[in-house]
Amino acid sequence: MQVFVAVSADQIVGTIACAMQDATVGHLRGMAVRPKWLGHGIADRLLSAAEAELARQNGSRITLDTTEPLQRAMRFYEKHGYRRSGKTTDFFGMPLHEYVKNAER
């Protein structure tokens, strides 16, 4: 798994991790940006870095999972081309929705 970290001065302001699940499918996890830094493009740059890494590893499809309370995250991912796959699992009593996107080359 690769972890990307956004840093400003002496603090971490955002993170994202990614890994290949198999030969062609990559998965994103752990996207977070400190509230003070929301709206500064940190999430865009972190997502771009993770997507580029998965494409570098020949990923043709990218997945991620998120829960209902994270509506802002859902809108963010949809804005970046991710769509619900229709797969929903249970995450400690909450629906966990899978999102998917074809990787850009």
Structure commentary:
The protein is α+β, with helices and mostly antiparallel strands and 105 residues long. It has a single domain, classed as Aminopeptidase, CATH 3.40.630. It is 23% helix and 49% strand. It contains 2 helices and 6 strands; from the N terminus they run βββαβαββ. The protein has helices spanning 42-56, 71-79; strands spanning 2-8, 11-20, 25-33, 61-67, 83-91, 94-102. Strands 1-2-3-4-6-5 form a 6-stranded mixed beta sheet, covered by helices on one side. The protein is globular. The two termini are 20 Å apart. The mean pLDDT is 95.
Characterize the main sheet.
6 strands, mixed
Termini separation comes to 20 Å
CATH architectural group: 3-Layer(aba) Sandwich
CATH top level is Alpha Beta
* Helical content band: 10-25%
The gyration radius over C-alpha positions equals: 14 Å
Q: Assign the structural class, choosing from mainly alpha, mainly beta, alpha/beta, alpha+beta, or little secondary structure.
A: alpha+beta
Strand content: over 45%
Q: How many domains, as an integer? A: 1
Silhouette: globular
Task: Determine the CATH topology.
Answer: Aminopeptidase
| Fourth CATH level, the homologous superfamily | Gcn5-related N-acetyltransferase (GNAT)
> Could you tell me the number of beta strands?
6
Taking all residues together, what is the mean pLDDT?
95
In spatial order, strands of the major sheet run 1-2-3-4-6-5
Count helical runs: 2
Q: Secondary-structure element order, as H and E?
A: EEEHEHEE
